[in-house]
Design a protein that fits this description.
Distance between the termini: 42 Å
Structural class: alpha+beta
Largest sheet: 2 strands, antiparallel
Radius of gyration: 18 Å
Strand content: 5-15%
Strand order of the largest sheet: 1-2
Shape: flat
Length: 73
C-alpha cells in the first residue's frame, strides 16, 4: 500500500511484530527530510566551529547530567 503523495512519507508502510501483534512503524524519512536535517546540522556545525561544543545530528540519545539541571524546565 502506497501513501497518498505526501513528500515526507513516500514508501510502503512497514510493520514489526511486538508481543505477537503487528505494529505499524514510522516510515524511513524521504530525501527532502534528510536534506533539510543535514542543512540544519551543517548550520549548527558552522556556528559552533572553534567552540567547545559539538553538534549532534539525528540518531543519538543524549543524556544531560546534573550540571544542566537548572537549565531544564
Amino acid at each position: 500500500m502506497k501513501t497518498n503523495g505526501n513528500l515526507a512519507c513516500q514508501e510502503e508502510l512497514r510493520e514489526e511484530i511486538l508481543d505477537g501483534e503487528a505494529v505499524v512503524m514510522s516510515p524511513r524519512p524521504a530525501f527532502n527530510h534528510n536534506q533539510a536535517a543535514y542543512n540544519i546540522a551543517r548550520f549548527f556545525g558552522n556556528f559552533l566551529a572553534g567552540r567547545k561544543y559539538t553538534p549532534i545530528a539525528d540518531g543519538m540519545d543524549l543524556y544531560l547530567d546534573d550540571i544542566f539541571s537548572g537549565l531544564l524546565p
